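Annex B, item 7. Sequence and structure tokens for protein A, then protein B.
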Amino acid sequence: MKKSIQILVLILFVNYTYPQLPPVFKGGDINRASTSEMIKSYLVPRQIIWQSDTSGKSIQNAETLLQTGNGQVAVNDENLFRFVSTENEKPGILLDFGKEIHGGIKISMGIRKSKTPLKLRLRFGESVGEAMSEIGGRQNATNEHSLRDFIIEVPWLGSVEVGETGFRFLRVDVTDSGEDAPIKSIEAAFVYRDIPYLGSFESDDERLNEIWLTGAYTVHLNMQNYLWDGIKRDRLVWVGDMHPEVMTINTVFGNHEVVSKSLDLARDQHPLPQWMNGISSYSMWWLLIHKNLYDYHGNLSYLQEQEPYMVGLLDQLSTFIDKDNKEILNGNRFLDWPTSEKPEAIHAGLQAMMVMTFQAGADMMSILSRPELQEKYNKIADRLKKHKPKDNTTKQAAALMVLANLKDALKANSKVLTKDGVQRMSTFYGYYILEAMAKAKDYNGALRVIRDYWGGMLDLGATTFWEDFDILDITNSGPIDKLISESNNDIHGDFGEYCYVGYRHSLCHGWASGPTAWLSQHVLGINVMDGGNKVKIAPNLGDLKWVRGSFPTKYGVLKVSHTISADGNVKTEIDAPEGLDVIQ
């Protein structure tokens, strides 16, 4: 059945229309609490994955947990779900809420003979395997950043709400013997921003449609008090991670205050000469994000607020260039984790980033009416272009060199970017690989990468995109939403390197949302210019027959559709808000 993504429609599969849920969510809700944009919806489980007893002795009426109720305990509730424990049987159950969410759990208990609070062990999981795991061990389940494995007490004829993490699955176990506990409900307390999806993307390829929406939802979940990298971990403002997230926010939600709030936090937390997050490239990403923000939204007063720090940072960066025009940046020299042990790739990527950063700096100085600084930073960019790193064979660094015009796009695409398909990809730098492929005009190839790489996560049960993904790990791996047999690998628990070993691996990481921004810009063809005052429509449908969607601009929502006609030409229809200059 064809999925339709409608502009300003927030609900696709939800039992009630109040409160509204993000359009990817399939679930029921009964109530909400609101503070400004941040709201809380209570969701019932979608299915029971596992229970320790199916005889009806220690677990009774389990199906009632899947029914949407009123959220209020009563003295005369009947036929409630029951946990009955003995010395030899302490029952447990595993619930699936259908989609990855951010928040906690509310458990309500009915009336029973004992008034002693009921002790329950809760285990949250982004995968079934994580929810069924113990802390530590080879598969590295942790309580770092957010608690996901702990014991609570549920009051007699009352409720308790606990937890603040990223999860889809919840395992609940009774810890003590001799319990007979009637449970009214076990609901997810889903915390998110109640904001409309102004941008949309729909085509004749449902896989691409789902990928676009999953990327949007991944970033949406990370738009908490600040713009986080992940909702389970690290729950921090990592500035480099923000760049793909900001491009997705520009595409889906428009100009949102969580971006400037997070950028300002990073600036204030890292006074010069500190590098942001201790990483020199992340300070450069801060500058590049500001350039993108101005390009899309044209907020001159906000750019002016950043001028002193920008100039200081650019001048600091200029001291890390040697006599051969080669970057010699100190601090943590980092692009992404897969390249972190390849110094030649790191240098190539940092050299390219230095070029892009000084070009962006020059452009921003022009906007700020600082011609002397514009000339200064353009000259530094030209110096840096004279050094062209060699020996790099990674897709990530090659992509940055293409974007900085240090490497020919066509040659890099054929020799590096498309080599071995989507092997040695990166969820973070995948966005820049796609950007470089677009520069080489390889739109069909880029669409294949999106379908195979990001689609590969969907095939494994993903409802948000992951911190890291190696396509070779698919072999003999079970999906994240099923119990894993002994003959299969656990895609979540059995793989990973660096910070994402085993279950510590974040399965909702905003830096992996790149296809959302890329599809809207390059396939739907919406290219924002002149501080958001102008949009150039230049579609590249590749192997698609039609595509349509919307895009938030400073003047309102722009709607565009493209169809391949019988003669092979593209027929375009545009519905533009008043005041927006649209060119084709």
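Protein B:
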Amino acid sequence: MAEGRAPAGSPVILVAGAGRGRVVHELARRYGADYEVQEHPDASSARTAVEHLAARGGRLAIALTALDAVGADEHVLAEIRRAFPDARRALLLDWGDWGDESATARVLALMARAAVETYLVAPRHSPDEAFHRGVTELLRDWARATGADRPGYVLVGDPARPRTHALRARLDRTGAQVRTLAPSDPAAQDLLARAGVRADADRPGAETPPIVATELGQVLVDPDDAALARAAGLRTDLPDRPVELVIVGAGPAGLAAAVYAASEGLDALVLEAASIGGQAGGSSLIRNYLGFARGVPGGDLALNAYRQAWLFGARFALARRATGFARTADGGFRIEVGGAGEEHSGVTARSVVVATGVDYRRLAVPALDPFIGASVFYGASSVEARGQAGRDVLVVGGGNSAGQAALHLARFARSVALVVRGEHLAESMSQYLIAQLEAAGVGVIGDSRVVDVGADADGTLATVVLEHRDGSRDTVTAQALFITIGARPRTDWLGDAVLRDRWGSILTGPQIAEQDASAWPGDREPDPLETSLPGCFAVGDVRRGSLKRVAAAVGEGSAVVSAVHRHLGPHTGG
């Protein structure tokens, strides 16, 4: 075993495999002051070390396992995943291993079973910055997952109450580190006192409002979205002048439109009612996005896109919801805006891109209502995963969002099963996810739907009643329910201004004439991404026929800017 200079109790970087002295030397030289670097010649000794580390309550940040070690004992990877679900697991390859067919087959098989998350190429020289870039990315992922990289926010609130969950979800989707404390926790008393709030125990029948302490020490009592945004240094105000382009929504499609519009000199404003990144921002890992071999957390992708757009000059107004829409006398647009308590209630623009995305559909099961936000969750956010340790969890839905949520939950929960209306998953889920779910032991309950739930004596969710296609019913144990059953476009705020289908999705391009030949008022053909109102465009999941993939949304958001330029004319931008 080779150890660095880190003090006792430091997180561990573990290397398993014979002849890895150069790897250990590079790791110890670069990270040895903060991490204990351990070298183990084979999987058996690495497995024993993992068991001992878990027994003494230690922390494992990264496990780098050589192919020869895995071949001897693949169980070490399962033990790491069980004992340290947040640890990052990577194969250690030598340069050129990808040209060996047998090595490639083993790597792909391990990835398909989710036994490892990625691979790193062993350093060939010192320093090898390509190697260290991979290591630091893994360390950053681990630190973010465990809250170890910075103090971050502190949230004081009862985790069983929906409002606490809502605040935690909102903070998590901004990329912030969040530590949640119960009001009774001694560590919370100073924050409660600073906020002038008394705990429930001192006020029978009362509820302690949640408290948020920011990274800079500001203490907020039950803050709304606008207060959280401003505390993070983000803008919520609207411009007092017309702009060339308003982009409504800051999901992948809206962010892509913002990047390309601002980079080409357009005066662009982005309105976002909730969190930057939309539903994709809450995804624990997007595995099939181009250019990210080991996947990218949705929050990272969204935050980087926001920074990119901001650096090009795009302006953002967060916690601002579009509430109305109309054409102005001069051919422009007026968007009515709510939220944030700002003086201005709207903004005018020469063109508009609608990228408001979708909301998850609700189950028509009234019995779920008391549990929403505490043990019943709509969406696939990774916020709640760590809280499911030792629990039985059901995920309702058969699409990629449901699969990604189930895979992430399986790292912590005692059991996870997907409840789907169809017979199996292949109709709506990517094959790589199906393989990983099988490897992770996620069950599938087909031909079924949720019709009722039951609670323990203390009022917490305990069981879920499923009805099968033949009409029979089963009661299964579950302490949490995650629902991702399709979506409804966020288009109510548009009124009758643009043509939509009966589900609320916006029609664009040739779809307009197919539904109503008289709906297009222009003397030219509409652009493929243009709505029935010239100069108003729709991109991403809000548009009829969209592919419901992050890459597709980014592509539409990027492409629409050319159409915006054509509408505005040759003397725009710059």
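Comment on protein B: The chain has 15 helices and 26 strands.
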